[in-house]
Every structure is written in structure tokens, then in C-alpha cells.
């Protein structure tokens, strides 16, 4: 028997798409984990739901995506000796995480055979085990001197689809990095780069020239992680790059706003994507993506419905994921949320644009309810409810 999820009484329907961020409708249907229909309940076939959710008038958005994390194993990070950080992140509305390298693995191998083995193993253990249901795209090797084209083919053949941040390994020159990123791209592996000053002892400076010469698919933490590049270099990257411009929580907030404002002037807001860069020196940030959305919306003066797109649809498009947007056939990954209690603003969007976090009331991944009222966000005015079926 197929699984059918129906969510009715949606008050505000966010699409994840900047060209039409708010959808008409009050209902969405998912069959076997994929969106099968959405719109007004009266027009949809909602019979035979195995799970029925009454949204109680709250907002439904595509699940948030963190474009930049550093996982190690399961739901544990040795970086801050923390358990269940991914479960906590789910409670911040994030349903998909993308690794920028498993660099906090104690004793991380830096020889070529070792780094390949770690990447393949990481890809497998997060494919085989999803902490609290969260999708973790991991297995992101950090390039080192001595790698040859065949290594990238081996990695791709073994299921690796991502590179870790260029610059965290021994390759710190644009010429070598460009060659290796080219090999990665040839075999379908996406790439990102550590932009800015060193993050922790042992890492180094990557300036705009190196970013441009390397030509990765994502300009990783363009606002630094932690130290940002000088303003003129950030502006130059915004002007020169067709790659994703990734803004992270663990970076410089002034540089984040500079990136946003420059991208807007250049009509490149569709390239803006969000990450946390957690776990990091500044810890884990379970509400990091929501906080970035509220910060950029309020201080950057972006309508909240567009700021949400930085945290789901834009990332999905740049990363070629079948989640993060409301579209038939896409994964039924959602966050349901409402204006936080006693937060100013006439509705959730105005409240976020005033810099307040929404209250998360439910998350759904692959059509399955994964969490109810968030233990981390402020409490919401209204909470969705599972009427029948599994929760
Ligand atoms: Zn970094």
C-alpha cells in the first residue's frame, strides 16, 4: 500500500522559488514521500490519506537546507563534543545538510588512499543512517597534493558527489586547485572553497584571486569562516562569479550584508545560499539557518518570503537537489511554522522582517512527520496537529 500524506488548512504557502515565493492554496498531498499535488483542498484528491495533518493555519515552507556543515559520524561531533546536534538542527527547520568536508574526524587521513577511503565511508554511513531522518549529503574529500585524475574518477564511481572545502588541505595554489576541481567536475563531483582567512590553527588564507582561479561551483562562506576578505574582494567575487554565493552563520555578519547588497545590485540574489559552517569553533547552530534568514531579511531589507528562498530553493537549485521547492515529484520535505508568541509584526512575514525567529511546529521529511513542536525555537502562536496516522 502506498503512503499518502495530506496537509490541510495551510495558512501561508511558501514555494522556495524567488520568482513566485508565495503560492495560492491551502493543501498539499504527498505520495510515497514525493509531492504529488498542491493547491486548494477543494480541488485535490485527499481521499485515503495514511497521515492527515491539520496545519491550523500556519505557514508551510520547503524544508530548509544547510549548504555548509562539517559532520563526522552519526549524530555526534567531536569538534565540540556534542551529541544530537543534527536532531537539534531538525528542530530549527532544517531537513537537508550538505557536507563541506569531514575535517573534524580525529586523525583525519591526508594521504591519498586514506582520504579517499574516509570520503567513501562517510558517504556510506550517512546514506545508511539518517540522524532523526535528516538527509546528510556527506563524503566530501579535501584535496591534497598528489591526487591525479584517476582518483576523482574512483571517488565518483564509488558514489562521492562533493568535494570538501578547497584550501583546508595542502592544495593552496590556484593552478593545482583549478586542475583538481576540473577533474572533479568532469566526473560529476561538486566543489566548494574556503573563502577568507584561516578558520582555526592549521588552515590558511584563501583570497579572491585564488577563489576565481580555482572556479569552484560554490564560493564557500563568502563572508568568511570566521575572517572575511576585505570588502573590495567580496564585491569582486560577487561581480565575477556565476557560482553560488554562500553566506554562513559562522562568518562575518557585516560581510554577509555586503554580499547581499552587492548581489542585489547585480541582480544576482538567486545565487545567494545559506549555511552554518557548524560544527565549528563557534559551536553548533541549531537555529542558524532561521537566524540567517531573519538577519538578512531585517538588516538587509529583503521581504521575508524571499529571504526564506535563500535557505531552501536557491540552495536546491545551485546544488541540484530534488528538495527545497514545492514542485510535483520533489521530495515531501517541509517545515511548518508560525509567528512566535509575543513577537511584533502583523503576521509571520512581517515578524521575520523585523528580525524575529518564527516558531517551528512540525517538520516532514520524505512525507513522514519527523518532529512536532520545536524544543529550540520560540513557541509559535499556533501549532499544526497530526489528526490521523503516524507522528
Ligand atoms: Zn571553511
Which outline best applies? globular
Instruction: Report the end-to-end length measured between terminal Cα atoms.
Output: 18 Å
User: Which kinds of small molecule does this entry bind, naming each only once?
Assistant: zinc ion
Helix content: 25-40%
Q: Number of helical runs?
A: 11
Task: Provide an overview of this structure.
The chain is α/β, with parallel strands linked by helices and 391 residues long. Helix content is 27%, strand content 23%. A six-stranded mixed sheet has the order 3-2-7-18-19-20, with no helix packed on it. A five-stranded mixed sheet has the order 5-4-1-6-21, with no helix packed on it. It has a three-stranded parallel sheet with strand order 8-11-12. The structure holds zinc ion (ZN). Zinc ion binds next to loops.
Short synopsis of the structure:
The chain has eleven helices and 21 strands. With 391 residues, it is α/β, with parallel strands linked by helices. β15, α6 and β16 form a beta-alpha-beta unit.
Keywords:
single chain; 391 residues; alpha/beta; Urease, subunit C, domain 1; TIM Barrel; 2 domains; six-stranded mixed β-sheet; five-stranded mixed β-sheet; 11 helices; binds zinc ion
Secondary-structure topology with pairs:
Blueprint: E1 4-8, E2 12-14, E3 22-23, E4 27-31, E5 34-39, E6 51-54, E7 59-62, E8 64-69, E9 76-77, E10 82-83, H1 85-90, E11 94-99, H2 112-128, E12 135-137, H3 149-157, E13 162-166, H4 174-186, E14 190-193, H5 208-214, E15 218-219, H6 231-240, E16 244-248, H7 253-265, E17 272-275, H8 288-299, H9 304-310, H10 313-319, E18 334-338, H11 348-353, E19 359-365, E20 368-371, E21 385-388
Parallel strand pairs: 1-6, 2-7, 8-11, 11-12, 13-14, 15-16, 16-17
Antiparallel strand pairs: 1-4, 2-3, 4-5, 6-21, 7-18, 9-10, 18-19, 19-20
Helix pairs in contact: 4-5, 5-6, 6-7, 8-9
Amino acid at each position: 500500500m502506498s503512503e499518502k500524506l495530506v496537509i490541510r488548512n495551510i495558512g501561508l504557502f511558501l514555494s522556495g522559488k524567488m520568482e513566485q515565493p508565495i503560492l495560492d492554496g491551502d493543501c498539499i498531498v504527498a505520495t510515497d514521500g514525493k509531492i504529488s499535488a498542491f493547491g486548494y483542498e477543494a480541488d485535490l484528491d485527499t481521499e485515503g490519506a495514511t497521515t492527515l495533518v491539520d496545519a491550523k493555519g500556519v505557514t508551510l515552507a520547503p524544508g530548509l537546507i544547510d549548504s555548509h556543515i562539517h559532520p563526522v559520524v552519526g549524530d555526534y561531533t567531536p569538534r565540540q563534543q556534542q551529541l544530537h546536534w543534527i536532531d537539534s538542527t531538525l528542530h530549527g527547520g532544517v531537513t537537508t545538510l550538505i557536507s563541506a568536508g569531514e575535517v573534524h574526524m580525529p586523525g583525519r587521513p591526508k594521504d591519498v588512499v586514506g582520504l579517499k577511503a574516509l570520503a567513501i565511508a562517510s558517504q556510506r554511513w550517512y546514506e545508511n543512517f539518517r540522524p532523526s531522518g535528516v538527509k546528510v549529503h556527506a563524503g566530501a574529500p579535501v584535496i591534497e597534493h598528489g591526487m591525479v585524475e584517476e582518483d576523482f574518477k574512483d571517488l565518483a564511481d564509488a558514489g562521492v558527489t562533493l568535494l570538501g572545502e578547497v584550501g583546508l588541505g595542502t592544495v593552496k595554489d590556484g593552478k593545482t586547485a583549478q586542475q583538481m576541481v576540473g577533474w572533479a567536475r568532469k566526473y560529476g563531483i561538486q566543489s566548494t572553497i574556503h573563502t577568507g582567512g584561516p578558520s582555526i590553527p592549521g588552515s590558511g588564507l584563501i583570497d579572491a584571486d585564488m577563489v576565481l582561479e580555482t572556479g569552484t561551483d560554490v564560493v564557500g562562506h563568502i563572508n568568511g569562516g570566521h575572517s572575511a576578505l576585505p570588502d573590495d574582494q567580496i564585491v569582486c567575487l560577487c561581480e565575477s562569479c556565476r557560482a553560488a554565493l554562500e553566506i554562513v552563520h559562522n562568518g562575518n555578519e557585516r560581510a554577509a550584508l555586503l554580499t547581499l547588497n552587492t548581489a542585489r545590485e547585480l541582480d544576482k540574489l538567486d545565487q545567494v545560499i545559506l549555511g552554518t559552517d557548524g560544527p565549528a569553533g563557534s559551536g553548533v547552530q541549531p537555529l542558524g539557518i532561521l537566524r540567517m534568514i531573519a538577519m538578512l531579511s531585517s538588516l538587509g531589507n529583503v521581504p521575508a518570503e524571499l529571504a526564506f528562498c535563500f535557505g531552501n530553493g536557491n540552495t536546491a537549485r545551485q546544488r541540484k537537489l530534488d528538495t527545497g521547492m514545492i514542485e510535483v515529484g520533489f521530495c515531501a520535505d517541509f517545515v511548518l511554522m508560525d509567528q512566535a508568541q509575543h513577537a511584533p509584526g502583523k503576521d509571520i512575514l512581517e515578524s521575520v522582517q523585523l528580525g524575529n525567529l518564527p516558531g517551528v511546529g512540525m517538520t516532514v521529511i520524505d512525507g513522514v512527520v519527523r518532529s512536532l513542536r520545536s524544543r529550540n525555537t520560540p513557541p509559535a502562536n499556533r501549532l499544526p496537529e497530526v489528526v490521523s496516522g503516524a507522528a
